[in-house]
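pls design
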């Protein structure tokens, strides 16, 4: 029923500075459900192990969601009336899983003298250990006729349901209050999530991406049109993988030069059934984009 892919590429800015890729991504096809996950390590000075933190965030999300699906029938029976509570519990479990991984890694790999050398003793003392691993997280799930997702920090989710229209079920923004960096490393991380639940809708495709992808586009229209185009190309997944990896690499080098991760899950049968509709949407989007460009030129004249 479901298939998927995921990929992370290093941005040109990280290659120039010798910084490792801070992004992580994964997807999982389960029994009657699928998961797409991406995470973006903060990469700044005090988050010096955030490339590991993003990896732990992806693993923590998949583990938490899988645990709730151990009794899939009970979960799906309760989602319509209790989705807010269920999703909130998943968010809490993700943070718990992530903290467990961080604590285990730190116990087995104490901070080195080289890592400490970038700070004064006073600066280092002020950093909470979990901050070493700080990361954002975007995770989404689709079942037979419902979709839900959670997000902490920046990044994007794009969904295409049976009508073939690309939408963002959650706005592109930081989910934390002003002046607070939303991160899985925050002490109140479980309260900083945004979430969505879309019942009684069949999903064609669902994408999670780190902020490097969104910011490589000139507008939200272009960003959504891109997802319609790539969804129409998913019918040949193996060919598509080569194309999308090349495209993401170009965007990470000639766009904002940031790391980019993209994870996708899709319904193979519904995709084939709606391919003509998707191709129609692509053509409609091209005409709308041309009209927007023409309108902008008129304003400049």
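designed seq:
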């Amino acid at each position: 029923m479901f298939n998927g892919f995921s990929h992370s590429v290093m941005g040109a800015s990280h290659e120039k500075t010798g910084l490792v890729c801070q992004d992580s991504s994964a997807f999982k096809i389960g029994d009657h459900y699928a998961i797409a996950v991406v995470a973006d390590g903060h990469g700044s000075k005090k988050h010096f192990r955030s490339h590991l933190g993003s990896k732990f965030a992806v693993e923590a999300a998949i583990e938490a969601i899988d645990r709730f699906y151990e009794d899939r029938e009970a979960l799906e029976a309760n989602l319509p009336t209790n989705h807010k509570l269920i999703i909130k519990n998943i968010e809490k479990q993700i943070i718990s899983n992530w903290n467990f991984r961080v604590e285990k890694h730190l116990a087995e790999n104490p901070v080195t003298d080289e890592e400490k050398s970038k700070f004064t003793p006073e600066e280092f003392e002020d950093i909470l250990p979990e901050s070493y691993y700080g990361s954002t997280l975007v995770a989404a799930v689709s079942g037979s006729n419902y979709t839900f997702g959670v997000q902490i920090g920046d990044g994007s989710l794009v969904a295409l349901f049976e009508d073939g229209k690309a939408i963002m079920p959650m706005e592109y923004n930081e989910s934390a209050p002003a002046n607070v960096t939303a991160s899985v490393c925050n002490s109140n991380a479980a309260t900083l999530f945004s979430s969505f639940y879309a019942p009684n809708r069949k999903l064609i495709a669902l994408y999670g991406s780190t902020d490097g992808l969104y910011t490589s586009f000139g507008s939200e229209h272009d960003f959504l049109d891109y997802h319609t185009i790539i969804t129409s190309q998913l019918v040949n997944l193996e060919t598509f993988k080569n194309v999308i990896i090349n495209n993401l690499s170009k965007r990470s080098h000639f766009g904002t030069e940031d790391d980019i991760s993209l994870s996708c899950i899709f319904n193979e049968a519904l995709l084939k059934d709606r391919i003509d509709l998707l191709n129609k949407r692509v053509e409609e989007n091209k005409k709308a984009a041309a009209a927007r460009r023409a309108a902008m030129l008129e304003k400049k004249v």
